[in-house]
UniProtKB/TrEMBL annotation:
The chain crosses the membrane at residues 7-28, 65-85. It comes from the Bacteria. The lineage of its organism: Bacteria, Bacillati, Bacillota, Clostridia, Peptostreptococcales. This is YggT family protein. Belongs to the YggT family.
Length: 86
C-alpha cells in the first residue's frame, strides 16, 4: 500500500511541475503555439480545465487563477494520501 501511495505522490508532484512549466510558458507570446505547450496541455488540462470553467462561470476576471486552485487541490490530495497511509 505504501508503494502505491509513494507512486501517487510522485505522479502528483510531476503534475504540479507540469502545471508550473505550462504557466511559465504562457507568459511568452510564441510558446502557447508550440508543440511542447500542446503536450503539457494534454496532461494538465483534465485537472485545470474544469476548474477554469467553474471559475470563469462565476467570476468575470481577466486573470486565470485555475492553476493556483489546482495546486491547492493537488496539495489536499497529497495530504489525504499521507494521512491514510502513514
Amino acid at each position: 500500500m505504501q508503494m502505491i501511495a509513494v507512486l501517487l505522490i510522485k505522479l502528483l508532484n510531476i503534475l504540479t511541475w507540469l502545471i508550473l512549466i505550462q504557466c511559465l510558458m504562457s507568459w511568452f507570446p510564441g510558446a502557447r503555439y508550440s508543440k511542447a505547450y500542446e503536450i503539457l496541455s494534454m496532461f494538465t488540462e483534465p485537472l485545470v480545465g474544469p476548474i477554469r470553467e467553474v471559475l470563469f462561470r462565476y467570476i468575470d476576471i481577466p486573470i486565470d487563477f485555475s492553476p493556483i486552485i489546482a495546486f491547492f487541490v493537488i496539495s489536499m490530495v497529497k495530504n489525504l494520501i499521507y494521512s491514510l497511509v502513514w
